[in-house]
């Protein structure tokens, strides 16, 4: 199962449309999406605008692959449980976000080699259609908590 | 020490939870913008606050009112936040109420610090960025929420 999530804040039609268009060609996979839509209507995939946190976690854990906007919540959650994830950044120029930070986030995490990044819809479709699932692996494992130096710095300050 | 930890829904909240070991031995209470998050911090007092952003001024005032009222009632010794706008309001209200205040800018702010962080840095006792390239005289780096 591929779980697609774009957060609950703002729509991200470009990502949903990209997935919806190629869904019939990904015949082996069920696709479940959590996203709000602006104008696009889906034809091929199941979509929910809100999924309560416990159901969301279940789907997240069950999924073989996560496709997401470049939101830190989803990125951290996926890396923590070593779930393969492809992110595609929301862009300011399309009014998908209040500022351009997702582009910078995506660039940084690509540099760190922590996850798969699709810069745009075309790239996302290519990755999904042309990469074997064995190659779409988890690229990094995060611990449960922040880095030791940040924890120590804070706990010394709080003392 | 009574620690009040504040974050908006989404990535801000997930980052805040990753700091939990830093608060060991202190009394800890949480504030966020979605009531269902209480589930993720079972055993701790949790308060829902209205969401706000800088564009909706009226909501911002309403949020400020609710957060300040709660902080006056709670009397925390320390207010810590990973953002966003409601966290900034928490820092300001905490400062007015005599608490120590700490802002940690979201790790999503990779190329420049957020506007809220910029504002927070003139009120907060300590301000962190999560990327070493973004430090200034007032904004320090000491690791990040990744591990």
Describe the protein's architecture and organization:
Chain A: Belongs to the glycosyltransferase 28 family. Chain A: This is Glycosyl transferase family 28. Chain A: It is found in: Endoplasmic reticulum. Chain A: Keywords: Endoplasmic reticulum, Glycosyltransferase, Transferase. The complex is a heterodimer of chains A (159) and B (147). Chain A has 159 residues and is α/β, with parallel strands linked by helices. In chain A, 38% of the residues lie in helices and 14% in strands. In chain A, strands 3-2-1-4-5-6 form a six-stranded parallel beta sheet, with helices on one face. With 147 residues, chain B is an alpha/beta fold. Chain B has a single domain, classed as 3-Layer(aba) Sandwich (Rossmann fold), CATH 3.40.50. In chain B, 29% of the residues lie in helices and 22% in strands. In chain B, strands 3-2-1-4-5-6-7 form a seven-stranded parallel beta sheet. In chain B, helix 2 crosses helix 3. The mean pLDDT of chain B is 96. The chains are: A alpha/beta (159), B alpha/beta (147). Chains A and B meet through helix 3, helix 4 and helix 6 of A and helix 1 of B.
